[in-house]
Here is the input.
Amino acid sequence: MYCALYRKWRPKVFSDIVGQEYIVETLKNQVKNNNISHAYLFTGFRGTGKTTCAKILAKATNCLNPKDGNPCNECKICKGIDNGSILDVLEIDAASNNGVENIRELREEANFTPAVGKYRVYIIDEVHMLSIGAFNALLKIMEEPPSYVIFILATTEAHKVPTTILSRCQQFNFNKINKDLIVQRLLFVAKSENINLDNKAASLIAKNVNGGLRDALSILDSCRSLAQDQEINTKIVSQVISIADLSDIIKLAEYIIKKNITKALDLVENITSEYIDAFKLTRQLIEVFKYILIIKISNTNIILDLEEDILNILKNISQDISIKNIYYILDIFSEGYDKIYRSSSKQLELEISIMKAIYQDQDQDLDNNLNNNLDNKIKQLELEIKTLKDKVNNFNLNIYKKRETNIEDQSFSNISDMSIYEAAVEISNWSEILDVLSEINPGLFAALSESKGYLNKDAEIVFIETDNQFFLDLIRSSSQAKQTLKQAIFRVLNKKYRIGPYKNNNKKSQENSNLISDIENLAKENNIKLNIK
Here is the structure.
C-alpha cells in the first residue's frame, strides 16, 4: 500500500523536527539527564510537529538504548511503540473521546504499572475538546500522578484549556515553521523521492501552508500525482491548491486601480473558468493590495518575500493610487470577504465588490470622512480645553480624557495613570492576533506588522506599542478599523478588551509636549484662539 509522504517522512528523532530547535533541545536534555516532567502541554498551529514530538518523547523515555536523548528506533520497545503493539503508550483523540467516562477509564488504567517500558505515556491530542467534567476528572490524576505516568497534551487552542491544567504542565509553544525551512525540506524530500520540483513551486507551496510542514508535504504528494514524470512548476501547484497565478491577480488589481471595469470582470471570468474558487481569488486580491500598501508606506521589500520583477511591477502600480484609496479598496474587499465565504454565488459577490471599488465616488467619500474627522477633532479639542481650566497651572499641563465603561464604544485614547501601563504585561501570542488581522483586514495588519501588544487584565485594556503614525491616525479616525482590531483580539484572547496606545515613563514628557503642539496646530488651523500656560 502506498504511504503518503507526510507519513513516510515523519521525524523519528528529535533532530529531524524542523523549525522547533529550542523545544527539541530542551526535551533531549531532559531525557539525557533523566529530568522528565509528569505533564507537558504542546501548543501551536497544525502541522508544526506537536504530535510527532510527543511520540518521539514517548519513545525516548522508554527506549532501552537512547542516544544523546533520542530514541534508538531499533530496540523492541521503540519498534513496538511505532507499530502500536506496546500499550504502555496510548494516543487519545479528545475530539471523539471527550467525556467524563473516557477520562475515568484513563485514571483507572493509569494505576497499573507499565507492562514493558519504564513509563506509561498518555498522549491526548486536541485536548481543548474535553468537556468541563472531563477536565476536572483529568485534573485529579494530574495533581498527584504515579511516578511512572507521563501526560503529553497537544492542542491548537491553548486558551481553551483551564488554567488549573495549564499550571500543572510544562508548556511548549510550537511556532509556525519558517517558509525557507519548509522550502528546504520540500526540496530535500523531492530529491530523495526522485520528484522533479522547481524552486519557485516549492516556494509557492510553502507560502500557502500557513507554517505547517505536514500540509506542505501533502500538497507535494498531490502535485506528484498530477505532474507524473513532468517537472512540478508553479502552474501545477496553483492547480492543486486552486489559486490563480500571481501575475493575473496583479493585472486584476491594476484594472481596479485604473477603473477598467470591462477588463476586470473579463479577467475574473477567465480565472474562475479554470475552477479557481472566487473566495480564494478574493483572498489573493486582498494580499496583492496589502503588498501595494506596504510598498506605498515603506518603499521597501524588507517585509515582503517577492521576486524582483514582481516587486518592480507593484511599485509602478502603487504610483497611481494614494494610501487612503488603497485602504478604502482593502476595506471593500475585506467586508466582501465574509459575504463571499457565506454566499452560494461567490463569483457574483466578488464582481459586486470589484464594481464598488471601481465606481464608488472615493474622493468625495474621503473628503467627507476627512471633514467629519476634523469636526470631531475640533469638538474634542474644545472639550479638552474646557477640562483644562480646572487642571492646569503655570508649570504643568496634564490632559485627561474621559474613560468610557462601554467596551464597544470605547475610544482609542491615552490613559493618564501610568500605573495602568506599569501593570500591563506583554502579550506572548500577539503574533496570533496579527495573523487573524491579516486575514480580516490586511491594510490594518500592514500598519501593525512591527507592533507589540500589552495586556492589563484588571483594567481590561490591550495597549498597542507602535511607531507607525499612519496606524495611530487611522485607528483614531476610523471606528471600523478600531472595531476590526477588537475583533481580532477577541478571536485570540476570547474576551472583549478596550484598546489604547502603550506608553512608558520615559516617553511621557515627550508625548505631553507633542500633544500640546498638536493642540496648538489644530487650533491655529481652525482659527480657534487658545492660550496654553
The longest strand covers residues 149-155.
